Amino acid sequence: MVTVDELSLPLLVELLNGWGAVPRRRAGDRERASRDDLLCRSPELSALGDAVTDEELERVADLVYPVFADPDPDRRSSTVSSLLVRSRVRPAVAVDGEGRLSAIWEVPDPGSAVLAAVAVTLRAQLSARGPERFGTCTSVSCGDVFVDTSPAARRRFCSVTCQNRERVAAFRRRHRPET
Questions:
Q1: Cα dist. 56→32, 38, 110, 113, 173 in Å?
Q2: Four-point Cα dihedral 56, 58, 62, 67, nearest 10
Q3: Which residues on neighbouring strands pair with residue 13, listed in sequence order?
Q4: What is the CA radius of gyration of the chain?
Q5: Nearest 5 degrees, angle CA 22-CA 81-CA 44?
Q6: HSE toward the beta carbon, residue 80, CA cutoff 13 A
Q7: Residues 23 and 31 sit within 8 Å (Cβ to Cβ)
Q8: Which one of 124, 161, 169, 173 is separated from 97 by 20 to 30 angstroms, measured CA to CA?
Q9: Residue 33's Cα: distance from chain center in Å?
Q10: CATH architecture label of 2-130
Q11: Strands, E, within 35-99: which ranges?
Q12: Do residues 150 and 135 touch, judged by C-beta distance below 8 A?
């Protein structure tokens, strides 16, 4: 039995953008991110040891991408539910070193630990924030995911860089000389 923890939102986004096939393909087949860099910044993932392979990170990122890309909240929730079932994660209660009870997530198969950690993170975040806060960049040359934490909930781009690139392209289209 392996215990998994929720991941931070920035880490979840980094995992999907760094290993997902769609974001990497739209960015011109960029190389996948560094597994070692990710593990250095994530005690939750580094605790999973050998279960965190490049292949597993790619597989999980591709399974989870539809949660961000699909505009239908029902399909998003269905996808997260199926990821929870697929990983066979289950809630449990454990006693910590000081005799206090705490809620934990357990996975019977260490090979499903990365998927389980991502699935419990999505479950918690979608419940807390709502599915409209999860999206993909609307730039034509980018497929990166993001979590909109802005007060107005109107984010459309993964970064200011993509937003500026699209604004410049739109300006140039509007001001292109007629031939």
A1: 12, 13, 12, 10, 42
A2: 80
A3: none
A4: 18
A5: 70
A6: 23
A7: no
A8: 124
A9: 14
A10: Orthogonal Bundle (1.10)
A11: 90-95
A12: no
Residue 34, both tokens: 């560094």
CB atoms under 10 Å from CB of 50, counted, come to: 9
Rounded to the nearest 10°, the torsion over CA 125, 126, 132, 134 is 50
**Residues 130, 122 contacting (CB under 8 angstroms):** no
End-to-end CA distance of the chain: 68
> pLDDT tens across 59-118, in order?
999 999 999 999 998 999 999 999 999 999 999 999 988 899 989 999 999 999 999 999
- Closest to 46 (Cα-Cα) out of 132, 134, 107, 113: 113
Taking the C-alpha atoms of residue 176 and residue 174, their distance in angstroms, rounded to an integer, is 6
Q: Give tens-digit pLDDT for 3-38.
A: 999 999 999 999 999 898 888 888 776 777 888 888
E strand spans, the chain = 2-4, 90-95, 101-107, 134-136, 145-147
**What are the tokens at 136?**
């993909």
- Position of tokens 């011109």? 28
Give the pairing of strands 145-147 and 134-136: antiparallel
